[in-house]
């Protein structure tokens, strides 16, 4: 399953159907719907390879359209969220890179729960909500199935003066360099709790490379 992209589609606010379809176009994907993420997958005309969760948001009749062996039920009183279960399943199936689609809006604890996944040893590479495109980069030798994401580097073309926010993740230390941002990241002191909010991609194109540590880069979703 080399170079397979795992896509977890979860509940909450999702990007428009067109964005979801374009993000996965031409990729070798394993799609896992986390409970009510099934609705979003179907709206985007995607057929999940697996559906996992306590199924408290899905009618039984809806699930009968899928082979029983690919529907994985958990008790409602469980130790992990449906999104965590879906993420772990994608990891167990050998996906090299994992994205999360959905999870916008709604309960703040659910939002923080997804964000916490980016702090773990095995973490998502991308998270797309209804209004944000979020990337995770780390100083390592990891590679990616995404052409413009090379593990430790994010190189993007976006609209002129688009906002770019950067948050350190994990235990540090952190160092990063940038090109194309109004306020360069080089030599910034990334102490715990520090962040770079509302930087600007002046000409609509920028690069961020992490030399130490892990960073979350948050961009507005271009619809």
| Number of H- or I-type helical stretches | 5
Beta-strand proportion: 25-35%
Strand order of the largest sheet: 4-3-2-1-5-6-7-13-9-11
Average pLDDT across residues?
A: 89
Number of domains: 2
Which outline best applies? globular
Question: How would a crystallographer describe the biggest sheet?
Answer: 10 strands, mixed
Q: Please state the second-level CATH architecture of the largest domain.
A: 3-Layer(aba) Sandwich
Provide the fold topology.
Layout: E1 5-9, H1 17-24, E2 29-34, H2 37-43, E3 50-53, H3 60-63, E4 71-73, H4 82-92, E5 97-101, H5 108-117, E6 126-128, E7 132-138, E8 153-157, E9 162-169, E10 175-179, E11 196-201, E12 205-212, E13 214-220
Parallel strand pairs: 1-2, 1-5, 2-3, 3-4, 5-6
Antiparallel strand pairs: 6-7, 7-13, 8-12, 9-11, 9-13, 10-12
Characterize the structure shown.
There is one protein chain. The protein has 223 residues and is of the alpha/beta class. It contains five helices and 13 strands. The protein has a ten-stranded mixed sheet, sandwiched between helices. A three-stranded antiparallel sheet has the order 8-12-10, with no helix packed on it. The longest helix has 11 residues, at 82-92. The chain starts with a strand and ends with a strand. The model has no long low-confidence stretch (mean pLDDT 89).
């Amino acid at each position: 399953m080399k170079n397979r992209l795992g896509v977890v589609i979860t509940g909450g606010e999702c990007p428009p159907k067109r964005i979801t379809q374009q993000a996965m176009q031409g990729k070798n994907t394993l799609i896992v719907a986390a409970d009510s993420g099934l609705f979003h997958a179907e709206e985007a005309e995607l057929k999940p390879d697996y559906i996992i969760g306590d199924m408290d948001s899905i009618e039984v009749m809806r699930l009968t359209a899928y082979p029983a062996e690919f529907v994985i039920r958990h008790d409602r009183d469980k130790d992990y969220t449906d999104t965590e279960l879906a993420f772990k399943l994608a990891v167990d199936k050998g996906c090299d890179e994992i994205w999360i689609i959905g999870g916008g809006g709604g309960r703040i604890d659910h939002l923080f729960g997804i964000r916490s996944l980016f702090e773990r040893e095995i973490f998502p590479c991308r998270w797309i909500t209804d209004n944000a495109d979020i990337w995770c980069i780390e100083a390592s030798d990891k590679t990616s199935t995404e052409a413009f994401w090379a593990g430790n580097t994010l190189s993007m073309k976006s609209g002129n003066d688009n906002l770019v926010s950067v948050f350190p993740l994990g235990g540090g230390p952190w160092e990063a360099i940038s090109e194309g941002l109004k306020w360069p990241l080089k030599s910034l002191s990334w102490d715990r709790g520090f962040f770079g909010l509302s930087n600007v991609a002046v000409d609509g194109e920028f690069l961020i490379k992490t030399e130490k540590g892990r960073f979350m880069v948050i961009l507005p979703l271009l619809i």
